[in-house]
Write a structure and sequence with these properties.
The protein has 448 residues and is an alpha+beta fold. It folds into 2 domains: 297 residues, Alpha-Beta Complex (Naphthalene 1,2-dioxygenase Alpha Subunit, Chain A, domain 1), CATH 3.90.380; 103 residues, 3-layer Sandwich (Rieske Iron-sulfur Protein). The protein is built from 15 helices and 21 strands. The protein has an 8-stranded antiparallel β-sheet. Strand 8 and strand 9 form a beta hairpin. The relative contact order is 0.16. The structure holds FE2/S2 (inorganic) cluster and fe (iii) ion. FE2/S2 (inorganic) cluster binds next to loops.
């Protein structure tokens, strides 16, 4: 039975959200059942499986899935569980296979999911076993969006672009080449680590919570960013200060923090100690301006695509999936992206920069995780659970008729988090796709 007290626990109008939704085991089970089986989830990136037979095991909710490329080079996502007794048919993180052979009784499946080999088939199963009906369980829908692979278990889900809505142009900048060409990125590395916090802390942090910047003060002082100077502001910071920052809550539950640069934007990176990098990034900047025109003014920082995919639109550019393990445990996956055809030096520079900045040992991400895990731990207590979190920041401070779509705010706002939890509640209550998309356009498209 569905929890019938969610409207009380999530008081979006009043700006209070109960800590129960971050720690309660029943609510967590309901999330797996109602959110993670319906929403579009990030599974991986095509560059992780470049050749026929390549596979990469991933997760959707708590469950293991196989992202693989079949003999005809088509990409699939299957539940990593044998149809006989459920054994994982693939126990490796990544590799190449012509067949998936179940380690338990050796049923074999082709890379397009069909049950091929059944030991002693004639003697034991002849005339009974329907191979077609015992294929690997495939996701209901799959989308290769500019190389990023998304999937959903819900056959009635809208197509991915409808789901993404106006958040598209922001996510695009994590996926497109720096010079403004569409797509063309590759994963240069993946960080995976488990941390003791509810998955929503991480997802929410990327909903434009720039309010938490004081957490990163020590890193800012050291100045580890590209072109950032230790202890003082670099040219890039000046440029960012002149930009108009926007925080946007989209009706489907996504949220972003981006900025619009003034017209006369200038190249502000600086790699003076490395001529190859300097040349490459300056070239990207000029090409981007030429290709995108006005569009080049949009600078995306971070965002979360409902429910558990976040992105960094600028360095360290990439996608993160927050995989739930339990109410108070999450596995973070960070896919770092670079332009496929960037010079080797640029890729190597970015690889080092990403490692220093993000992930379990990254100087910045450590700060964030400290916050999430102590907040989770301090919310599990009997007394603590009686007191809801406050979400009243920038109430009502947004416009709805902005060309960027959604609720657009010019100041940091928890309107995005309120929108996220409004949508979360709709999923948890079993809402239909009209309600889940939450916009007139979305409703029309879902109905078609
Ligand atoms: Fe896979 Fe038996 S569990 S063959
Ligand atoms: Fe942070």
């Amino acid at each position: 039975p569905l929890r019938n007290d969610l409207d009380q626990l999530v008081d979006v109008k009043g700006g209070f959200i109960s800590r129960e939704i971050f720690v309660d085991a029943d609510i967590y089970r309901q999330e797996l059942d109602k959110v993670f089986t319906r929403a579009w989830l990030l599974v991986g990136h095509e560059s992780l499986v470049p050749n026929p037979g390549d596979f990469y095991t991933s997760r959707m909710g708590e469950e293991s899935v196989i992202l693989c490329r079949d003999k005809k080079s088509e990409i699939h996502v299957f539940l990593n569980s044998c149809r006989h007794r459920g054994m994982k048919v693939c126990r490796y993180e990544q590799g190449n296979a012509s067949l998936f052979t179940c380690p338990y009784h050796s049923w074999t499946y082709t890379t397009d999911g069909k049950l091929q080999g059944v030991p002693l088939h004639r003697t034991l199963y002849d005339g009974v076993l329907d191979r077609e009906a015992n294929s690997l369980v495939s996701v209901a829908k799959l989308c290769n969006y500019k190389g990023s692979i998304w999937a959903t278990w819900d056959k009635d889900a809208p197509d991915f672009l409808t789901y993404l809505g106006d958040a598209k142009i922001h996510l695009d900048q994590a996926l497109d080449c720096r010079d403004g060409r569409e797509g063309g990125s590759e994963v240069i590395g993946v960080h995976k680590w488990v941390f003791p916090a509810n998955w929503k802390f991480a997802a929410e942090n990327f909903l434009g919570d720039t309010y938490h910047n004081p957490s990163h003060r020590s890193v800012d002082l050291i100045g580890i960013g590209p072109s950032a100077a230790a202890g003082k502001k670099g040219r890039r910071d000046d440029e960012l200060e002149k930009a108009e920052h926007v925080w946007i809550s989209f009706p489907a539950g996504h949220g972003v923090h981006s900025a619009i640069q003034p017209e006369a934007n200038e190249y502000t990176e600086s790699f003076l100690d490395n001529p190859i990098l300097e040349k490459y990034f300056r070239h990207c900047f000029e090409e981007r301006k030429r290709r995108l025109g006005e569009g080049a003014r949009l600078l995306p920082f971070v965002g979360t695509i409902f429910p558990n995919t976040s992105y960094h639109g600028r360095q360290p550019r990439g996608l993160c999936a927050w995989h739930p393990h339990s109410p108070t445990s999450t596995e973070g996956w960070r896919f770092f992206l670079v332009d496929k055809d960037a010079p080797k030096e640029a890729k190597e520079y970015l690889r080092r920069y990403y490692m220093r900045y993000s992930g379990p040992a990254g100087m910045t991400e450590q700060d964030d995780m400290e916050n999430w895990l102590y907040a989770t731990a301090a919310s599990t207590g009997t007394v603590a659970r009686r007191y809801p979190f406050n979400y009243q920041q920038s109430m009502g401070a947004y416009v709805t008729d902005h060309p960027l779509g959604g609720d657009v705010s010019k100041q940091v706002t928890e309107q995005i988090a309120r929108g996220f939890y409004r949508r979360w509640t709709t999923y948890m209550q079993g809402g239909d796709w009209h309600e889940l998309l939450g916009s007139p356009a979305g409703k029309r498209q879902a109905a078609e």
